[in-house]
Amino acid sequence: MEPLDLKWIRAQFPALTQKINGKPAIFFDGPGGTQVPGAVLDAMSDYLVRSNANAHGAFATSARTDALITSARAAIADFLGCNSDEVVFGANMTTLTFAVSRAIGRELQPGDEIIVTRLDHSANISPWYALEERGVIIRVVDVKIEECTLDMSDLSQQINPRTRLVAVSYASNAVGTINDVAAIVRLAHAVGALVFVDAVHYTPHAPINVHALGCDFLACSAYKFFGPHVGILYGKREHLTRFTPYKVKPAPEEVPSRWETGTLNHEGLAGVVAAVNYLAKLGCHVSPAVDSELVSALAEADKEGLENFSCPRFLTSPNQPSHELASAYHSRRAALVAAMSAIQQYERELSHKLISGLLEIPGLSFYGITDPSRFAWRTPTVAFRLAGQTPETTAKALGDRSIFAWHGNFYALNLTEKLGVEASGGLVRIGVVHYNTVEEIHQLLQGLNEIAALTN
Question: What does the pLDDT look like over 386-429, one tens digit per residue?
Fold first, then answer.
């Protein structure tokens, strides 16, 4: 596998050329939303100019919208490793999670139990607590504060025959911890419980294969993996069919449309397709084994409708178009896995430089995994505090240096309360993604040393 071409990557993101206070902007705010490639902007604009119409009409722009929805489901199916009829779109992950919790809640009885964790974003906690009004019991799995990791022993003890669902994050959006979701799925399924995975923070950092993982539901948001604000839900077909969503009467009954309330964000879906195809193109750059010709042909077809898919070498082929598309989807999936694997490797290298540098700063308290041998269990998202400063003060001082970082609880309220930092402003969060560079990390560390020295 070839290394990432940072020059090519950064050239795809127009926002990275910004200057703030005369200095190039450094975006370490990715966990709150990543920047987007120019191709995403172009796709959204092109949709609004050429195809802006509601679905299922008997005219050209509506037909293009129908084709776009089909393309978007196929793109996310390739991204997550599932079937296109297992992909649901919505306003955001939180809204989709509430929709699933309400639907599942219809079948729960008083005394049934749901397990959540103290490591999660509230979007994967509050929708399940809402079922307490039906008599459902909510159990909370604790964390080991030394490394901010999930207490798997506590989880094992809490799962029992009354457990109906386990809600867990793939990775913590606050401190970067990656959970052993495959092991959690096995524990839950052993007692007949469902597993709902919040993968919002995990998706920009590593490949995902939901079928291999075995989870029942997985939710994420495109704006965390270089796309626009669109919520995404994977659900096993059997569950999307069996559970009954709340919907208006005229809305479709078939899966997955029955889970999509109101008109979809069509221009957002155009951006989602472009974001996935950007990552697939990156995969072609890093892996010579990927069929780049097929991946490029599929990306072009996504712009005009999949019925227009064509690849030069298939023009004299006896294969049916469905076979051609299947080959293209397989190639795009391979390209996406290659891209995300290369991203994971590069970001792990950045994690080493970032965390080792942070640990050398006087007065810095670090929250999360610091042992390099365990970096496979963390994303390059880190949380810390500087002695004598509130997180807001630190973030503001970084912002004055054109370095963008978040502060607060990031909606991981249970975790910041457990760590004892909520009342004093929470944490400072630095989030690295694949368009960040070693030089940017050096500038961050230099800035933090200067800021720490002001207090010390």
Answer: 999 999 999 999 999 999 999 999 999 999 999 999 999 999 99
CA 128 to chain centre: 20
* Identity of the residue numbered 97: T
Question: Angle, nearest 10°, between helix axes 266-286 and 321-358?
Answer: 80
For 56-77, the pLDDT digits (tens) are: 999 999 999 999 999 999 999 9
Closest CA to 9 of 385, 282, 316: 282
In 354-453, the DSSP E strands lie at 364-367, 381-386, 403-404, 406-408, 427-431
Q: Which helix (H) or strand (E) holds 303?
A: helix 292-304
User: For 280, phi and psi rounded to 5 degrees?
Assistant: -65, -40
Question: Where on the phi/psi map is residue 111: left (φ > 0), alpha (ψ -120 to 50), or beta?
Answer: left
Compute φ and ψ for 85, nearest 5 degrees: -85, 10
Question: Where are the strands (E) in 204-341, listed by range?
Answer: 217-221, 231-235
Backbone angles phi, psi at 63, to 5 degrees: -60, -35
Q: Which residues pair with 431 in a beta bridge?
A: 29, 381
